[in-house]
């Protein structure tokens, strides 16, 4: 059964490389799309230039990949929140 590629994440080149690495560690094959164009001229790869680089996996790995991506996003949001608390206490 052939399966097509499914986009599971989009962001900057560095964010997508991190997600790709996490997926690889979870045993999920993935690839980046628009990594060069999305870095050099992101507005050509994606309207507005936001999320110009994309991570794709096969349909059969989509559910597992989404769990990995959700965990990554949760950790990033947690890190951003803790940095805000640190910077506020430093300015007081």
Description:
The chain is α+β, with helices and mostly antiparallel strands and 92 residues long. It has one domain: Hypothetical protein rpa1041 (Alpha-Beta Plaits). The chain is built from 4 helices and 3 strands, in the order E-H-E-H-H-E-H. It has helices spanning 13-25, 37-40, 42-45, 62-91, and strands at 5-11, 30-33, 53-58. A 3-stranded antiparallel β-sheet has the order 1-3-2. It starts with a strand and ends with a helix.
Short description:
The protein has four helices and three strands; from the N terminus they run βαβααβα.
Jot down its keywords.
3 strands, alpha+beta, Alpha-Beta Plaits
Number of DSSP strand runs: 3
Order of strands in the sheet with most strands: 1-3-2
Per DSSP, the total helix count is 4
Fold-level CATH name: Alpha-Beta Plaits
How much helicity do the residues have? 55-70%
**Unreliable segments (pLDDT under 50, ≥5 consecutive)?**
none
pLDDT averaged over residues: 82
Rg calc: 16 Å
Q: Element order, helices and strands? A: EHEHHEH
Distance between the termini: 60 Å
The CATH fourth-level homologous superfamily? Hypothetical protein rpa1041
How much beta, percentage-wise? 15-25%
């Amino acid at each position: 059964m052939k399966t097509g590629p499914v986009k599971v994440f989009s962001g900057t080149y560095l964010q997508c490389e991190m997600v790709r690495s996490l997926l690889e560690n979870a045993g999920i094959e993935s690839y980046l799309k628009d990594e060069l164009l999305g870095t050099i001229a992101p507005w050509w790869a994606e309207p507005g230039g936001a999320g110009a680089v994309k991570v794709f996996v096969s349909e059969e790995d989509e559910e597992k990949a989404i769990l990995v991506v959700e965990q990554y996003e949760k950790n990033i949001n947690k890190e951003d929140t803790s940095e805000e608390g640190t910077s506020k206490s430093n300015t007081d």
